[in-house]
């Protein structure tokens, strides 16, 4: 009798673990979701990592609705990936650095993008030309600067990194 109860209990724990971020069960479920996305849509167009200079962007906090920060972030993400990049889908994994600064790793499927599956070809010429096309495509869509100029004429990207105590 104890064996059956123990099995039922452990099944419930494992089941509920899928909804607890950070657990092995949660990431196993997310991994399966990602595999299903790749199976149905093919390889993603881009892998990305975003890190915010959050200690330099005090106004960023003002843009996030304090009553619903998670909802605000999701709306921002959708606005960027769906409306700006026109992604057909995306998948993300959020992580926090030791100083509690968030960053995200993810994959996105963009329309009219190159067929990255050509990189898996056994034909060296096809792989090389695909790499070149991907580099050119990346130059068009990727930015690593903040062009905003501060009132004193400096740029956020010119600011020294914050010190962490």
From TrEMBL:
InterPro entries xref list: Helitron_helicase-like
Start and end residues of each Helitron helicase-like domain: 10-107
Domain of life: Eukaryota
Family matches, as Pfam families: Helitron_like_N (PF14214)
Protein name per Swiss-Prot or TrEMBL: Helitron helicase-like domain-containing protein
């Amino acid at each position: 009798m104890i064996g059956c109860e123990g099995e039922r209990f452990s099944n419930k724990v494992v089941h509920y673990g899928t909804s607890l971020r950070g657990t092995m069960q949660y990431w196993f479920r997310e991994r399966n979701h990602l595999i299903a996305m790749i199976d149905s849509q093919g390889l993603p167009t881009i892998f990305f990592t975003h890190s915010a200079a959050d200690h330099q962007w005090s106004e960023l906090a003002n843009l996030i609705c304090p009553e619903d920060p998670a909802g605000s972030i999701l709306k921002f993400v959708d606005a960027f990936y769906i409306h700006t990049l026109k992604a057909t889908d995306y998948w993300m994994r959020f992580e926090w650095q030791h100083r509690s600064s968030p960053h995200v790793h993810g994959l996105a499927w963009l329309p009219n993008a190159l067929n990255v599956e050509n990189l898996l070809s056994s034909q060296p010429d096809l792989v090389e030309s695909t790499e070149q096309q991907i580099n050119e495509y990346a130059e068009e869509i990727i930015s690593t600067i903040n062009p905003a100029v501060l009132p004193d004429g400096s740029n956020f990207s010119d600011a020294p990194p914050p010190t962490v105590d």
